[in-house]
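Technical annex, item 7. During the second reporting period the consortium partners agreed on a shared format for inverse folding records so that results from different sites could be compared directly. Each record opens with the tokenized structure and is followed by the designed sequence. A conforming record, contributed by the partner at site C, is shown below for reference.
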């Protein structure tokens, strides 16, 4: 459950400016509550706590965009291929993990899950306002397809590759590299935990 040390009044202003509905808190200690997507923010005196299955829906609005560089890790998992599938992703800066998530995405193939994971991770990095991203995943196929080293014959994967390229172009600088599974351990764990929670 992420928490931010911030001015609750300034955080409220940012949420309202983004169209989020802010209501009174449920207890005498809560200053206000806001919901957006699958996340709920609760403000206390000098902290805002974000709860829910997708805290990024609110975290990116609560943190003022500061630019900078993030390491983006992603992983998709499918048990069956096709079968039940999930994604995991992590955003890391010099200060540690900024954001992360793991979600079930229904039934699909492993390659489609990998694409869903990198798309979700890049959307989160963009929402956080990063200028530069170093993207890392253990799907060599996806990495080579997005970089144009492999053809993408499957129409659905071709669409997803286009979406990844569109997202990458939002950043001033980006890299995309294949890494061994052990380097991608946190994203892999989040994807598998999401599958296990079903």
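Designed sequence (site C submission):
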């Amino acid at each position: 459950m992420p928490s931010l040390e911030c001015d609750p009044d300034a955080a409220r202003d940012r949420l309202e400016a983004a169209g989020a509905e802010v209501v009174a808190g449920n207890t005498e200690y809560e200053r206000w509550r806001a919901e957006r997507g699958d996340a709920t923010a609760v403000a206390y005196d000098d902290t805002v706590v974000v709860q829910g299955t997708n805290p990024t829906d609110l975290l990116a609005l609560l943190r003022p965009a500061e630019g900078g560089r993030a390491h983006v890790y992603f992983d998709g998992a499918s048990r069956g291929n096709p079968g039940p599938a999930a994604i995991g992703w992590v955003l890391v800066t010099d200060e540690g993990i900024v954001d992360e998530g793991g979600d079930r995405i229904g039934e699909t193939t492993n390659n489609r899950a990998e694409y869903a994971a990198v798309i979700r991770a890049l959307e989160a990095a963009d929402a956080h306002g990063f200028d530069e991203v170093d993207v890392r995943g253990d799907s060599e196929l996806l990495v080579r397809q997005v970089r144009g080293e492999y053809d993408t014959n499957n129409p659905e994967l071709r669409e997803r590759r286009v979406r990844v390229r569109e997202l990458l172009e939002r950043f001033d600088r980006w890299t995309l590299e294949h890494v061994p599974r052990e380097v991608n351990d946190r994203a892999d764990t989040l994807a598998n935990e999401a599958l296990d929670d079903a």
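The CA atoms of residues 74 and 89 lie 4 Å apart. The beta strands are 3-5, 21-24, 32-36, 39-43, 47-52, 69-78, 83-93, 96-108, 132-137, 173-178. All partners now use this format for quarterly exchanges.
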